[in-house]
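Lecture notes, part 5. Sequence design as translation. It can be helpful to think of inverse folding as translation between two languages: the language of shapes and the language of residues. The source text, in structure tokens, appears below.
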């Protein structure tokens, strides 16, 4: 795990003080020896089974995001990896040991000693999809037509994941309509219907869908929203609606290693968004992306300091409807597409053919109240602090209760879909 070194401007805070790193040692003092023991074992937060599982599937999510971003270097990326992880975890119920181990390694289950992973996953899903969190997520396993499925697979699938598998009819229009109807029902009509036909040669198709509309803990004043420049690069800019708060209260830090400014804004329902904003518009985002792990994000959550700042944030409404098949093949899961053993599902030889993801994410000025919550007391600083998301940035939507990664995005152009 990368050590977190946040320069938190504490020298400018009244009362002074030194900056701490992620291990809790003061900057300038000797760092503790590296023992190879993960932070998960040292931090009480990760000793809670549901939190430990959330960390594992989130690390899968960061892996998936990195591959997807690498495949789309010049485009926005929007993912809710939890829905994809859920489909994979559910599929592992039907896998024999060799194939199950491949899935579990990709999901980082091999680092967990929990004997009831699927029961804990049920608890995780219940927590992150609680009504007040404004986050919807659903997953489904779809099988080829006329496949005979063992009831011994369906029962635990329903028990832990609350879903039943779907058998294709072989009629692409009928199958697409059925899948669209299922998505609409799961997402309460928040996702647009897909026009992408389901291929007739599918053996196993995984589908993960998600939707989130953020409600800020402190709402933005719509009268302060205006068209402002978003710098695509050093030479090009576009006008986009930017929300503004001249006296925003946020949690802030500067990571000198990654050369980026980090800010966290609370949302209602025990969720928050962490922004990674490079110091320069020309800076490549890859180094930031490579640092992302559950442990790193958890350290950030502990280390950021509450400050008052001049804040601008672009209004955002993004969606994704496409495949993550190639991305899964890149992260330890090629064997699922070649010669897996799913004999706990059926007596016929089947393999993963396709993985689809549909997601929608938006935020606007909406929020709980006009002022910050009492627990967010900003430290007094002796210089003005600006935080303007007016150039490419990365954001992470995190569930505060479990630490689960709910959404992640690379925003190169806020106008993108």
């Amino acid at each position: 795990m990368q050590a977190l070194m946040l320069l938190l401007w504490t020298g400018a805070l009244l009362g002074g003080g030194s900056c701490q790193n992620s291990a809790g040692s003061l900057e300038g003092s000797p760092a503790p020896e590296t023992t190879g023991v993960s932070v998960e074992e040292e931090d009480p937060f990760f000793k809670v089974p549901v939190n430990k599982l959330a960390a594992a599937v989130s690390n899968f999510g960061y892996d998936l995001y990195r591959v997807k971003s690498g495949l789309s270097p010049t485009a926005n990326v929007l993912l809710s990896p939890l829905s994809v992880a859920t489909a994979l975890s559910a599929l592992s119920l039907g896998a024999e040991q060799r194939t199950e181990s491949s899935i579990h390694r990709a999901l980082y289950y091999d680092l967990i000693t929990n004997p009831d992973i699927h029961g804990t996953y049920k608890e995780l899903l219940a927590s992150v999809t609680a009504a007040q969190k404004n986050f919807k997520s659903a997953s489904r396993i779809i099988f080829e037509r006329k496949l005979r499925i063992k009831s011994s697979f369906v029962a635990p699938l329903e028990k832990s994941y609350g879903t039943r598998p779907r058998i294709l009819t072989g009629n692409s229009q009928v199958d697409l309509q059925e899948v669209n109807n299922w998505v609409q029902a799961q997402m309460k009509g928040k996702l647009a219907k897909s026009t992408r036909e389901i291929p007739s040669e599918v053996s196993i198709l995984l589908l993960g869908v998600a939707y989130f509309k953020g409600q800020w803990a402190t709402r933005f004043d719509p009268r302060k929203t205006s068209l402002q420049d978003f710098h695509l690069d050093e030479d090009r800019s576009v006008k986009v609606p930017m929300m503004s708060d001249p006296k925003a209260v946020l949690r802030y830090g500067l990571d000198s290693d990654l050369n980026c400014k980090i800010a966290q804004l609370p949302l209602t329902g025990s969720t928050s968004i962490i922004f990674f904003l490079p110091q320069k518009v020309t800076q490549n985002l890859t180094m930031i992306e490579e640092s992302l792990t559950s442990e790193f994000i958890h350290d950030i959550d502990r280390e950021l300091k509450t400050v008052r700042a001049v804040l601008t944030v672009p209004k955002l409404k993004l969606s994704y409807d496409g495949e993550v098949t190639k991305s899964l093949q890149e992260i330890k899961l090629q064997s699922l597409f070649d010669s897996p053993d799913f004999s706990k599902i059926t007596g016929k030889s089947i393999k993963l053919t396709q993985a689809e993801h549909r997601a929608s994410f938006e935020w606007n000025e909406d929020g709980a109240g006009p002022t910050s919550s009492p627990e967010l007391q900003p430290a007094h600083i002796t210089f003005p602090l600006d935080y303007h998301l007016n150039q490419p940035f990365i954001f992470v939507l995190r569930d505060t209760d479990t630490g689960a990664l709910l959404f992640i995005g690379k925003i190169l152009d806020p106008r993108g879909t």
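The translated text above is only one of many valid answers, since several sequences can fold into similar shapes. The chain has a mean pLDDT of 89.
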